[in-house]
Amino acid sequence: MKPTVYIETTVVSYLTAWPSRDIIRAAQQQITHDWWHTQRAQFDLLTSELVILEASAGDPAAAKERLKILSGLQIADSGEQAEILAATLITAAAIPSGATRDALHVAIAATNGIDYLLTWNCTHLANAMLRDKIEQTCAASGFRPPVIATPEQLFSEEHHD
User: How far apart (Å, rounded) are the C-alpha atoms in residues 78 and 16?
Assistant: First the structure.
C-alpha cells in the first residue's frame, strides 16, 4: 500500500501558475513541477472539497487549470470529525484563530488517516514552530497527525539533489 498525500491548495496553485519573477517562488514552482512529475506516482493522492473550493476562486482560466489537476484525485471526507478537530486546533492555538481553513486542511488529513499533508503554506502549516502543537492536539483528539511537508521535503533520496 502506498503512503497517502493530501494535496493542499498552494501545491496545485504553484503547479499551474505562470512562472514567478520572484526567484524563491520560481524555485518553489519548479520543485513542485519536479515533485509532481517524478514523485507523485509513489503516493496515493487525495484532496478535499475545501481545496476544490479554494482552487475555484480567482481568475476563471487559472481556476480551470487548477481544477483539471484536482479532478483525478480522490476526495477525502471532510465531515463532522474534521470540523471538530479543526475547531480544537484553533482553540488549542496550534493554528492561529484567523486561519480556520488551514486548521481544516490539517483536520481533514488527520481524520482521514492521511500520511502527509503537502503544502507551500509555511506560515500556518509547514511551520516548525507550530508542528509540535499541531501534532499534540491531533494526538490528544485521537488522531495520528499527518506529516506536514513542502514538496521539497517530500522527495525520495534517489531523486533529490
Answer: 25
